[in-house]
Amino acid sequence: MEDDLSSARGIDYSMLRDFLKAGKWKEADEETIARMLEAAGREEKRVLEERSINEFPCEDLRTIDRLWVKYSEGHFGFSVQAEIYCSLGGTQSCDEQIDEKIWEAFADRVGWRKQGSWLLYPDPNLTFNTSAPSGHLPRSYVAIIFSSLVSRLLTCNIVRL
């Protein structure tokens, strides 16, 4: 069965699909942020902000997440991360400040922190294979937008909590 690579903005997700299909997790992680920046019209700024996440096309977010979940057999993806985050008590509202204790617990669970120290991208201790904890990838975006991302996943009906 062919993958649905639909995009509200005409973004080509075939390279992301190919990296994921081949198990090239680091390349897929980098391709994810590149395509997200493109879909948000933020290629030149090279950063996603809360507003760009809140307005991110649901169709594109669904495509990216579906590809990650499919090719990692449910191990990676934004929806996997959102479920973990919310199971730890993370807020589903981007109107609220991210709770630092919950954020740290989430980072510990998905392997973004080791012994209380953050593994900043592209730290060599970040794991780019399926032996990484569930939800470890995609990783190439920043914490500031995470609660906005969770909120957008809910708004787009990609994850239901």
From TrEMBL:
Entry-linked InterPro entries: GUN4-like, GUN4-like_sf
Signal peptide: none
GO MF annotations in UniProt: tetrapyrrole binding
Superkingdom of source: Bacteria
Ranges annotated as spanning the membrane: none
Organism of provenance: Desertifilum tharense IPPAS B-1220
Domain (GUN4-like) ranges: 7-140
Protein name: GUN4-like domain-containing protein
CDD domains referenced in this protein's UniProt entry, alphabetically: GUN4
Pfam families for this protein: GUN4
Cross-referenced PANTHER family: TETRAPYRROLE-BINDING PROTEIN, CHLOROPLASTIC
